[in-house]
């Protein structure tokens, strides 16, 4: 049940991104749900390999290159699905930041609900 709730909250977080970042487009709620699954798979499978390959650059930039890695993964996920489109790298960069912040906020709110008062 918790996994389903996290999936829905991440879809809502992804639906918020086009209202803040002009270069990100999502057609329907169904597209957002599928895009969240694709983003999860891309971040689970491809991102660790990409981080390992770019480790020298990441260390040289004191970790700031991870923003570029996240943007590339966001952009790649936008290329896979037809209902989820990212227009360019700048939109992917800001879209990935907004999506991460919104997803983190929803996760924090869910954890806050569990704590006894």
UniProtKB/TrEMBL annotation:
InterPro entries registered for this protein in UniProt: Phage_holin_4_2
Keywords: Membrane, Transmembrane, Transmembrane helix
Protein name in UniProt: Phage holin family protein
Any Pfam family hit: Phage_holin_4_2
Transmembrane feature ranges: 28-46, 53-77, 89-109
